[in-house]
Recover the amino acids of this structure.
């Protein structure tokens, strides 16, 4: 039986995409606008992509092309997650071992199928949203409105950079949706994009653009300034874990897209002959 | 079930020893004839019943990476800066450009961005650091003063930002009073990334009478 | 059992029965002859029957009868003075009833035996189950006796739609298993699914409900329960009203209910019998307790190995001081302490009565203190493990899951810190998302939220808000409910 992918799950799955960009995006004065703009463009493109999905899926060639295309965001995601862990906590571990363990986790999650990944995305998206908001609230008193920047000439370039990372994954997913979920895709990307922009704003107002430019992961470092009394000072990891889970969800969903031509089922990935029955 | 079991065991085998670390609660940086001297307040606690007590270790070198490396060589465990909350710099150090120092500390993974930097007036930073036997007394003093508004609230990330923006900054100043106790000494003003002058309470309008 | 054919000759029937049960000293043969000369033979097992019923309702009516010759039907209809008797021609059913405490009566000239319900073995009284105690509410519990168990259910559900369907499972034990459901409330698909699974079992013996539960459950390797178990008739009645099925097994006080959803792990009988304000707080505490018991040792190890910057400075210094001199790395130390905790729990559970309590006190206090003094373990580790152990008791239905997850998360924490814990929890969540119980999603009402079923998911709504037709599992969201 083909199971239904509910709009709310679909929206959560798409919300993971902008959220998983947060850790790696620099915080210049333009990032707030660029994040919002890129997410909005993505939402529009994906809404269109989701409408095209049924037609797209009728062609085996296009499906294969999409599967190959999804390789790119998967590989970049795994690589940047591995690098992030290597640069922040596990500097003594070989990079390949970190990427390997991330790949294993991704595949384990992907075997559940696209529907279950989307179902799983719902609590993860809520968790990430809650952590982002809590982190923001805890640092409000330290923010300096003077660090605010108006949109400038660097905005198109930054928007393009974010789009380059966000759009391939979003497009691959929207074209693989089992049902017409264009509204859900747009809602998810918009909600995720709003949180993305908010956190970029927090980093800019907190650290300032110059300090942020010094840091390899400014949004991550800024989260370290959120503390509850003497507890969780330097607590970036509490911020990073849900965001990495978002990225894991994104990789798992894209892996489902990658394996879609083999699986014949949106529900649970089955490579055996049983799936064709 | 076998596979998860094997994976679990393999992962357990990866359990590493917790590395022995020497946690630093505060640092003091002084200028010497041929470079700098970095003094670290290392926290020692031997048993649950004891109170944490400070121990002071110094190293000399020509730049901050070298100083930290030399310091870690003489420490019993790995130099652990994550719990360092204060960096004291002497007047002579502050008279040079402090921007590279702030930048370096910002980019160090271990160092907290909320580390408070203070300038020591009329004396060495090491003397002031060693004047108090209680761990974290200095950071508590600076926190309280920042909250009350008697000293500038300038954690490391803010110092770096303002210095990058236009090279001017204000930092809290401390000194050892006649009783040998640490006391606020107004504000150190930086221009072009260098210490320019000190302002006491009356000059910035917050004091009683001059 | 092979088919056995009886003859019209009473003596040959007596010989046949005696040859079948040769060597069984509880087998009793009683000849009874009426005033007019009608010969009958009465067979029963000593200890399994109600002697008064046999004497007064079977033997006396035969002896006092004026019939000289009678068929099995006549004996059944006009002689025996008992509420339940029948002529049985199927030898397998005959022996099943006979072995279960019924009495068999043969009469001269008829090959067909009469089966009389004279069951009368001693049973335990319906006391409150030890592991499902409530502060207020009904205190009756199931016993090992089958029919009284069904009566306990029926007494609570006076509904003509309540059905009890009997099956016989186990080629040696021939155990009666009863499938209970409310027709029209429970989905027919669920009934068929369970019935097919039960009928498909080819096993020798069923001595407890768990013999069946492990065989017919979905996700056999998962540590999360996919069948509910209870010893309380009120719980079974509530489950039946919600559209679930129950499986009652003869000889076991434990009744299975299906489907079983994850949310039920955090529900307690008390939740429905005390104020919703208190019940909901308790339920939230149970959820927190479960999360705490599985993550606390792992988070402790992760913090001390990889994220010491997160620990408040003075606490870190104290824990580091306590760790000094302990021979094992903190991951292994916690792992071994958790094993010791499980060993103590096992010893406490297997040791009788007061001695078990003494074991726990000796183990918990004396050994813990001694281990810390001797530097076998650090005091913070003992505290962490003890807290994990105590909070683990808050959700008894998830004790197996908590045990395994605690170790798995500990391993993940030791290897990859809080990131490892996060990933391990996320993969566990994926697992839960994939799970089903009798084709109903395991996380129904939690993630695939059906709006109408929210009254008793995370929290219990007050009774005045609760609709009376809250069939939690009747609808499958995969078929069109809009969450």
């Amino acid at each position: 039986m083909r199971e239904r992918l509910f709009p709310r799950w679909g929206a959560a799955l798409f919300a993971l995409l902008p959220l998983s960009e947060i850790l790696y995006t620099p915080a210049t004065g333009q990032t707030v606008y660029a994040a919002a703009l890129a997410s909005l463009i993505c939402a529009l493109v994906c809404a269109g992509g989701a409408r095209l999905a049924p037609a797209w899926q009728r062609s085996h060639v296009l499906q294969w092309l999409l599967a190959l295309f999804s390789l790119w965001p998967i590989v970049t995601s795994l690589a940047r997650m591995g690098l992030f862990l290597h640069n922040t906590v596990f500097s003594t571990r070989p990079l390949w071992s970190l990427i390997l363990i991330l790949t294993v986790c991704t595949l384990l999650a992907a075997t559940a199928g696209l529907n279950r990944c989307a179902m799983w995305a719902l609590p993860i998206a809520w968790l990430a949203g809650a952590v982002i908001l809590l982190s923001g609230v805890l640092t409000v008193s330290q923010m300096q409105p003077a660090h605010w920047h108006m949109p400038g000439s660097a905005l198109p370039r930054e928007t393009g950079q974010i789009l380059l990372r966000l759009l391939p994954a979003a497009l691959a997913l929207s074209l693989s949706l089992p049902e017409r979920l264009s509204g859900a895709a747009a809602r998810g990307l918009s909600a995720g994009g709003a949180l993305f922009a908010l956190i970029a704003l927090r980093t800019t107002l907190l650290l300032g653009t110059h300090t942020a430019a010094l840091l390899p992961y400014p949004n991550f470092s800024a989260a370290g300034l959120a503390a509850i009394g003497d507890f969780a000072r330097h607590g970036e990891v509490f911020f990073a874990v849900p965001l990495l889970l978002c990225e894991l969800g994104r990789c798992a969903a894209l892996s489902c897209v990658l394996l879609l031509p083999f699986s014949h089922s949106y529900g649970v990935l089955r490579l055996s002959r049983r799936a064709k029955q | 079930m076998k596979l998860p079991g094997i994976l679990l065991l393999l992962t357990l085998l990866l359990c590493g020893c917790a590395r022995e670390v020497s946690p630093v609660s505060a640092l003091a940086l002084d200028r010497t004839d041929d470079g700098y001297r970095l003094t670290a307040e290392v926290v020692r606690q031997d048993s649950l019943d004891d109170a944490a007590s400070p121990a002071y270790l110094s190293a000399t070198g020509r730049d901050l990476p070298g100083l930290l490396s030399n310091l870690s060589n003489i420490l019993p465990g790995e130099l652990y800066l994550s719990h360092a909350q204060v960096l004291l710099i002497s007047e002579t150090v502050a008279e040079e450009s402090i921007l590279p120092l702030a930048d370096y500390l910002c980019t160090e993974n271990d160092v907290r961005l909320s580390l408070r930097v203070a300038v020591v007036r009329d004396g060495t930073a090491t003397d002031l650091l060693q004047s108090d036997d209680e761990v974290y007394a200095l950071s508590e003093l600076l926190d309280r003063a920042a909250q009350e508004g008697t000293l500038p609230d300038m954690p490391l990330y803010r110092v770096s930002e303002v210095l990058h923006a236009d090279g001017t900054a204000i930092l809290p100043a401390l000194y050892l009073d006649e009783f040998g106790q640490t006391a606020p000494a107004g504000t150190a003003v930086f221009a072009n990334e260098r210490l320019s002058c000190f302002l006491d309470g009356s000059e910035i309008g917050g004091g009683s009478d001059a | 059992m092979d088919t056995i054919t009886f003859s019209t000759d009473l003596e040959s029937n007596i010989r046949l029965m005696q040859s079948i049960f040769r060597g069984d000293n509880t087998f009793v043969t009683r000849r009874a002859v009426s005033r007019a000369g009608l010969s009958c033979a009465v067979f029963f097992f000593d200890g399994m029957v109600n002697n008064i019923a046999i004497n007064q309702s079977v033997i006396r009516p035969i002896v006092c009868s004026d019939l000289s010759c009678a068929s099995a039907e006549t004996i059944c209809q006009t002689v025996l003075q008992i509420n339940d008797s029948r002529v049985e021609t199927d030898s397998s059913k005959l022996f099943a009833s006979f072995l279960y405490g019924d009495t068999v009566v043969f009469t001269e000239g008829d090959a067909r035996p009469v089966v009389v319900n004279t069951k009368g073995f001693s049973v335990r009284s319906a006391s409150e189950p030890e592991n499902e105690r409530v502060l207020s509410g009904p205190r009756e519990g199931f016993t090992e006796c089958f029919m009284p168990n069904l009566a306990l259910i029926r007494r609570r559900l006076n509904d003509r739609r309540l059905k009890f369907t009997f099956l016989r499972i186990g080629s040696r034990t021939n155990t009666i298993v009863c499938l209970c459901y409310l027709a029209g409330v429970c989905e027919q698909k669920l009934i068929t699914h369970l019935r097919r699974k039960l009928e498909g079992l080819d096993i020798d013996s069923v001595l407890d409900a768990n013999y069946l539960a492990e065989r017919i459950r979905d996700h056999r390797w998962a540590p999360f329960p996919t069948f509910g178990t209870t010893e309380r008739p009120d719980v079974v009645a509530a489950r039946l009203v919600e559209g679930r099925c129950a499986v009652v097994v003869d000889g076991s006080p434990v009744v299975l209910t299906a489907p079983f959803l994850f949310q039920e792990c955090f529900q307690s009988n008390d939740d429905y019998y005390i104020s919703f304000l208190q019940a909901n707080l308790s339920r939230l505490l149970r959820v927190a307790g479960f999360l705490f018991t599985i993550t606390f040792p792992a988070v402790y190890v992760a913090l001390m190995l990889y994220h010491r910057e997160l620990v408040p400075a003075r606490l870190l210094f104290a824990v580091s001081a306590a760790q000094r001199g302990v021979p094992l790395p903190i991951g292994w130390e916690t792992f071994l302490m958790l094993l010791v905790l499980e060993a103590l729990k096992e010893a406490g559970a297997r040791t009788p009565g007061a001695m078990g309590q003494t074991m726990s006190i000796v183990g918990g206090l004396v050994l813990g203190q001694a281990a810390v003094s001797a530097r076998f373990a650090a005091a913070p580790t003992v505290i962490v493990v003890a807290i994990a152990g105590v909070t683990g008791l808050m959700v008894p239905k998830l004790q197996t899951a908590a045990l395994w997850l605690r170790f798995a998360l500990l391993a993940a924490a030791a290897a990859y810190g809080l990131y490892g814990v996060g990933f391990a929890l996320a993969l566990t969540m994926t697992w839960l998302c994939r799970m089903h119980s009798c084709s109903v999603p395991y996380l129904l009402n939690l993630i695939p939220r059906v709006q109408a079923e929210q009254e008793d998911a995370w929290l219990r709504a007050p009774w005045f808000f609760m609709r009376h037709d809250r069939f939690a599992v009747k609808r499958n969201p995969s078929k069109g409910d809009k969450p």
User: Anything to note?
Assistant: Residues 7-276 of chain A form one domain. Chain A has one domain: 7-276.
